[in-house]
Amino acid sequence: FAQTMIFAIEEINKSSSLLPNVSVGYKIFDSCGSTLPSTRAAMGLINGQERTFGKTCSGHSTVHAIVGTSESSSTLNLSLCFLFQISHFSTCACLSNRKEHPSFFRTIPSDYYQSRALAQLVKYFGWTWVGAVRSDNEYGNNGMATFIEAATKEGICVEYSEAIARTASKEQVERVVRVISRGTAKVLVAFLSYDEMDALLEAALSQNLTGLQWVGSESWITAHHLATMKYSGILYGSIGFAIKKAKIAGLQDFLLQVHPSQDPQNHILKEFWEETFGCSFQSSLQETKQCSGSERLRDIKNPFTDVSELRISNNVYKAVYAVAHAMHSMLKCGENSEAVKASCTLKSILQPKDSHIVDVHFSLESGEKVYFDERGDPAATYQLVNWQRNPAGDIVFVVVGSYDASLQSGKEFTMNGLNITWVTESFECFLCPLEYWSNEDHNKCVPKVLEFLSYEETMGTLLTAFSLFGAGLTLVVSFVFFWFRHTPLVKASNSELSFLLLFSLTLCFLCSLTFIGRPTDWSCMLRHVAFGIAFALCISCILTKTITVVIAFKARTPVNRVPQCLALHQRMGVVGGTFLQVLVCVVWLALAPPFPQKNTIYAAERIILECNLGSSIGFWVVLGYIGLLAVLCLILAFLARKLPDNFNEAKFITFSMLIFSAVWVTFIPAYVSSPGKFTVAVEIFAILASSFGLLFCIFAPKCYILLLKPERNTKNHIMGRDLQKNN
Question: What pTM was computed for the model?
Fold first, then answer.
């Protein structure tokens, strides 16, 4: 960064169009990656002293602008001194507050946009359950707070959010790693600075933390020192937003010419040289070789000489040029007016209330435009990078998408269609076969869970028990009626139709069992046919009983001849009513029979085994025919409810049909809206509820008299003659 600033200044000083006849000087201080040293350095610049421990900003200095620092925490302290400052790497959204930081500008976008971009990225890939770790400073805390706020609005849940301080002990960092490893989230959003990321990775290596999809912030996502074999097992496949990379013409040649002899007093440059070439400028008896000074940077390959990923360095370059353009604008402001010229002193050129830096708008040689908004921020554009391997096996940062905050809402985030490498070290994701699903590590296809209403599960067991109980109860009622078959009550109830009705009710209860269990070709056809015919027989019996009651009381023929006339008609009525349903079912089975199918549309992670109706028309015709019989029966029973009889069966038939109709009217919306095996459960419930309703409404009053009130089981009582005698 420092060498890039020097390169830019030398370019400006050689320029004949930008600041002609003006030389720009500089001083470079090392912030040591800490707030205190950077603050001391700034105080020295402000007070005109290189070394100072003063705590005020009241001094005078020839320094008109500060480029830096790299960290938001240090930048916050410097900006309070109201000296013009332009940062290349401080991203905290808090620095956009013009009331508190009116003199602050930057060439890197605010985290206000990056945090929201990360939330959209996580949503785009369908990751709704993530973990989070952040630096315990302004950068991490503000950035993560904004991310969590945006993620929550997108329907994303954050399992945990851990913080790592720069001064955190080894044990504290290891505790964070344990939280991450014990969590169930497989996606980790890391809003970390350099140093905190280094500490986290060292602890992750010691605890063998793998199998996570890392989502990174711009601070580390393109850090070359992390893209090594040491960390590749942890970070390979990482994805995150980075500052757009650029090319700076001439910078590489400038960097390759760097040599300690250029500035013998620069101790940092000597340290860099010694570490790069493994030598020492100090004579010693140790094995370290002596630096000769003839070493050349052209002969080695390291991050310093690699200009293929100029991202933050380009921000430094832009910051220096922004200062130069502001100075140039100020110097030109008074060329045509002496009065104006007098007010355009060099001291005032970069005051925050002045418009020169605010109005800066220029293009670099690369074509990139540089300008600031009212908050001192640049345009928020990012590149989405993914860690992949090149043919040589080295980690490279591949651009797979972009984010531009200036675009229309909802269109800021775009993918460029390139393949993405995930942690699983798969170069591209592929769809599992239809009957398979990805495992928890997303590196293998495993069979999907098959879902159907089985006898073993609780719901299936309960429905089976109710079905068998209903069938058993119906058989008990049949036995009671058979035992009292010669009594007036059973005879008056039309014993032939009563036994046939009880038989059909038994079939209704038992047909529900065909809906339980794994669907097969035969069970799918049997369940709907059995259901349709059993209920058609049941309702036909009730309809015939109702018609018989009405005819018996309305007929003008002598009473002793009525049963003989109706015996044949009621059998024909039952057979005819059932035969039409049988005919519909035969046509249905012949043209488009129900069949088992695997439904993978409703739930992606499981297969729902169900019976396809084959023809929805067939099913609704069967159901509609039963409904038609029930409506006719309800109307006739309602009309016959006031016939003169102590035991008017039409009343009980009316109640039974009301319950029957209510159950099946409710069934239709529930059936249509219920998913998977619950569709089957709803149909079984409707069958059982309507069957129990018919059984209790029609036969419970009769069993009550047969078993508990035998004195009422007389012909006179049934015909109402007991009441007439008492009167």
Answer: 0.59
Q: What is the pLDDT of residue 107?
A: 96
Q: What pLDDT digit, counting tens, does each position of 48-64 carry?
A: 655 433 334 444 556 77
From the list 194, 268, 193, 370, the residue with the least C-alpha distance to 6 is 268
* Cα–Cα distance list, 533 to 244, 245, 293, 304, 562 (Å): 72, 74, 102, 85, 30
Distance of CA 339 to the CA centre of its chain: 63
Confidence band for 197, pLDDT divided at 50, 70 and 90: very high
For residue 654, the SS3 value is helix
d(CA 123, CA 157): 11
Higher pLDDT, 559 or 181: 181
360/369 Cα distance (integer angstroms): 10
Give the per-residue pLDDT at 726: 46
Cα 706 from Cα 480, distance rounded (Å): 8
Phi, psi for residue 70 in degrees, rounded to 5: -80, -15
What does the pLDDT average to over 632-650? 71
Q: How far is CA 180 from CA 175, 183, 184, 652, in A?
A: 9, 5, 8, 67
* Amino acid letter, residue 627: G
Sign of CA dihedral 696, 697, 701, 706: negative
Contact present, 356 and 330 (Cβ < 8 Å): yes
Phi, then psi, of 683 in degrees rounded to 5: -65, -40
Instruction: State how far the alpha carbon of 430 is from the alpha carbons of 116, 422, 436, 457, 671, in Å.
Output: 28, 12, 12, 34, 36
CB 678 within 8 A of CB 451: no
Going from the C-alpha of 532 to that of each of 60, 482, 611, 617, 619, the distances in angstroms are: 98, 27, 16, 14, 9
Burial 666-697 (b: 16+ CB within 10 A, else e): ebeeebeeeebbbbbbbbbbbbbbbbbbbbbb
| 308/290 Cα distance (integer angstroms) | 31
CA-atom Rg of the chain in angstroms: 43
User: If DSSP codes are grouped into helix, strand and coil, which group holds residue 148?
Assistant: helix
Is pLDDT above 60 for 354?
A: no
DSSP secondary structure string, 188-228? EEEE--HHHHHHHHHHHHHTT--S-EEEE-TTTTT-TTTSS
What are the beta bridge partners of residue 625? none
The Cα–Cα gap between 332 and 148 comes to 47
Contact between 581 and 565 (Cβ < 8 Å): no
Q: Residue 600's closest CA among 449, 402, 393? A: 449
The pLDDT value recorded for residue 613 is 86
**Exposure on the CB side of residue 528, measured as CA atoms within 13 A:** 31
Among candidate residues 698, 720, 706, the one with its CA nearest the CA of residue 545: 698
| Structural domains of the chain ordered from first start | 1-50+59-108+307-367 (3.40.50.2300), 111-246+380-415 (3.40.50.2300), 458-554+564-719 (1.20.1070.10)
Tokens matching residue 432 = 């599992």
Give the C-alpha separation, 600 to 625, whole Å. Answer: 32
Is it the case that residue 316 has pLDDT exceeding 60? Answer: yes
